[in-house]
Amino acid sequence: MKNSQIRAALGAATEADPRWAKIKLRDKASDGAFVYSVKTTGVYCRPSCAARLPNPANVGFHATPVEARTAGFRACKRCKPDLGNAAPHAAKVAEAARRIAASETMPSLASLAARAGLSPHHFHRVFKAVTGLTPKDYAAAHRGKKLREQLHEGASVTQAIYDAGYNSGSRFYEKSKSLLGMTPSRYKAGGGGEEIRFAIAKTSLGALLVAASDKGVCAILLGDDPEKLLRELQDRFSKARLVGGDAKFEKLVARVVGLVEHPRKGLDLPLDIRGTAFQQRVWKALAAIPAGATRSYAEIARKIGRPKAVRAVAQACAANQLAVAIPCHRVVKTDGGLSGYRWGVARKQELLKREEAA
Predict the structure, then answer these.
(1) CB neighbours (10 Å) of residue 247?
(2) How many CB atoms lie within 10 A of CB 237?
(3) HSE (CB half, 13 Å, CA atoms) of 202?
């Protein structure tokens, strides 16, 4: 078959694909459903890209931008497909977030969407793509932040609950543990009365401290000095009651040791994750990185819809208290180099080495 015949066949196959019709229409509703690449330019675009329509014989379809990059294509600088479907609406989402933060009660999804000029379904999807949270979860995170600030400033529990926008005390108490990790009175007292079990073990990477609340594992710390790890735990839970682990707890510690020695296995244990809404979004993105793979800080920033927050992502990684369980060791610099790691770059390198070897 001649080259001209091959190209004609490729073009016909592309034109028969329903996605080609979406590209010809520059259908914005299809943004996020797929991307297309152009062999002659080496780039991939979103369906709505305003660039000149390519020859269908040169077009390929990809389910995601990652798939297109894996095939050797680079992102179009005009339509910026890596920013996802939400990029054109970032300003609208920011305005909606400000409105949620300023409102005493959560605005309805319909009113937020109408203000943004979008349908409720589309607005919900765009808001989550930009912030990493649904409007409802964003409002809950904001209320939780305001509540913690009020309690830190010395407000009474009742005053803090209502100032944070909770109309009902009973409704708040249903969610208080997930918001604060403990009851509000304990939180106000700096964790006073909370019981934290802990134990220290040895691993090939040095000392390991494991601590757990009644909610789950709340700290996995690595280091050279066991006493320093214990002081770090005491500083974090200054008013909690620290209790040495019993035989049952030692079994949990043994499982964590196994995770450190074989990080590819994963850890199927309840975790008590305490952090800001932004930190939790970053940590959730880290947990999605497959064992043996790495992502750059910039990639994580784009993943959570905050492409300019690279420094904040790095700070969230540094604030991680659950070594290996939340795999911040899988985050590297853009050039692939190993940057700072809370528990030492040498440990980071060894963990990655073990995952790659497995």
Answers:
(1) 6
(2) 20
(3) 0
pLDDT digits (tens, 9 = 90+) for 113-122: 898 888 888 8
End-to-end CA distance of the chain: 45
Give dist(CA 345, CA 229) in Å, integer: 17
CB burial of residue 217 (10 Å; 0-12, 13-18, 19+):
buried
CB-based burial, 252-261: b 16+ in 10 Å, e otherwise: bbeebbebbe
b/e for 142-161, b at 16 or more Cβ within 10 A? bbbbbbbebbeeebebeebb
State phi, psi for 82 to the nearest 5 degrees.
-70, -20
SS3 content of the chain, % helix, strand, coil (to 5): 50, 15, 35
Q: What are the tokens at 24?
A: 């010809």
Instruction: Locate all alpha helices (DSSP H) within 49-189, ordered by sequence.
Output: 65-70, 90-102, 109-116, 120-131, 135-152, 157-163, 169-180, 184-188
The structure tokens 């043994």 sit at 254
Q: In sequence order, which residues have a C-beta less than 8 Å from that of residue 52 and are 6 or more positions away?
A: none
Res 295 pLDDT > 80: yes
pTM score, whole prediction? 0.52
Compute the distance between CA of residue 342 and CA of residue 332 in angstroms, rounded to an integer: 13
| Catalytic residue IDs | 45, 328
Mind listing the pLDDT tens digit for each residue in 69-97?
Answer: 878 899 898 888 876 555 566 678 878 88
Tell me the C-alpha to C-alpha distance, in Å, between residue 246 and each of 98, 199, 220, 236, 250: 48, 9, 17, 22, 6
Sheet with 74-75, edge to edge strand ranges: 59-62, 35-38, 43-45, 74-75
CB burial of 89-121 (b: ≥16 within 10 Å; e: otherwise) equals: bbebbeebbeebeeeeebbebeebbeebebebe
- With left for phi above 0 and alpha for psi between -120 and 50, is residue 334 left, alpha or beta? alpha
**Residue 340 contacts residue 318 (beta carbons within 8 Å):** yes
3-class DSSP assignment, residue 318: helix
Q: Which residue has the tokens 């004609």?
A: 8
- Round the CA-based radius of gyration of the chain to a whole number and report it: 25
